[in-house]
Design goal:
The protein is mainly alpha-helical. The protein has helices at 22-30, 44-54, 63-75, 78-87, 90-95, 108-120, 124-128, 133-146, 152-170, 191-203, 205-209, 213-223, 227-232, 238-253, and strands at 177-179, 184-186.
């Protein structure tokens, strides 16, 4: 409450305990208010860009939370609910169990779902045209949300078949490093392994779902001996890494075992 100097101190509406202090009033008068007007007919992309720019003070939202906002804005929440349903699929969660617990607070499992859907439906030339991989993934997801041609039921089926197969054969080892000398999987979650293995199996699910378990295991183990994979597996440049590894999804999982 704002209390002027000439207010009656006995007036309940000007109770000092419920009023701004002198210092607060001075700070308030000096403050600048930045007003943005969003017209009803504004482009949705413009609204999203404005939302991102405003989200700079206080406790900023995570990148995934901003993406969630965009999906809700475009598709009234239908696509986001579909998205979250995939992220809560038990075999998927078991496959990524080696991921640090802290990232789940930022809903990073949704980012992994995004990568699966996007990379399974993209090629390197598309990605090469985008300066940042995060922008490419976001733009592709928004395109899915807007499209009448996006077959959510088909994508859900492939997603569930892929991770059901992986968890049945690999448990939580699918995206961990394989040590050929120790003949075992170890360490934490590898994003590069996730991108190549999940995308590769998903793109060729009919072949691998009907195969015996051992050929699937052999493919995944031998990936860690592939020079192209190991050269880029630890690259911190997410865009360059996927540009070099995405071709492996078909090369490695789209051909028969030698």
């Amino acid at each position: 409450m704002w209390r002027n100097e000439d207010d009656d101190e006995d007036d309940d509406d000007s109770d000092p305990e419920n009023c701004f202090t002198m210092f607060q009033r001075i700070e308030f008068k000096r403050a600048e208010l930045d007003v943005k007007i969003i017209k009803e007919d504004n482009d949705q992309d413009a609204r999203y860009e404005l939302f991102k720019r405003i989200n700079t003070g206080g406790n900023s939202l995570s990148e995934q939370e901003v993406k969630n906002f965009l999906l809700v804005m475009i598709n009234r929440g239908f696509f986001l609910r579909f998205f979250k349903k995939l992220a809560s699929f038990p075999p998927f969660l078991q496959c990524i169990a080696s991921f640090p617990d802290s990232v789940f607070k930022e809903q990073y499992e949704l980012e992994l779902v995004s990568r699966f859907l996007v990379f399974r439906n993209s090629d390197t030339e598309e990605i090469r045209k985008s300066p940042a991989l995060s922008d490419f993934v976001t733009n592709k997801m928004t395109a899915f949300a807007r499209s009448d041609d996006f077959d959510a039921e088909k994508e859900r089926e492939i997603f569930e078949r892929t991770f059901s197969l992986l968890v049945a054969i690999m448990k939580d080892d699918a995206f961990r490093k394989f040590d050929k000398y120790g003949n075992s999987f170890s360490g934490g979650f590898s994003m590069a392994a996730y991108d190549v293995i999940a995308t590769g199996i998903g793109a060729n699910i009919d072949r691998w779902e009907d195969a015996d378990a051992e050929p699937v295991k052999t493919k995944i183990r031998s990936l860690w001996g592939n020079r192209q994979f190991t050269s880029w597996e630890k690259s911190e440049d997410d865009r360059e890494r996927i540009l070099h590894l995405l071709p492996l999804t078909e090369e490695w999982f789209g051909r028969e075992e030698d």
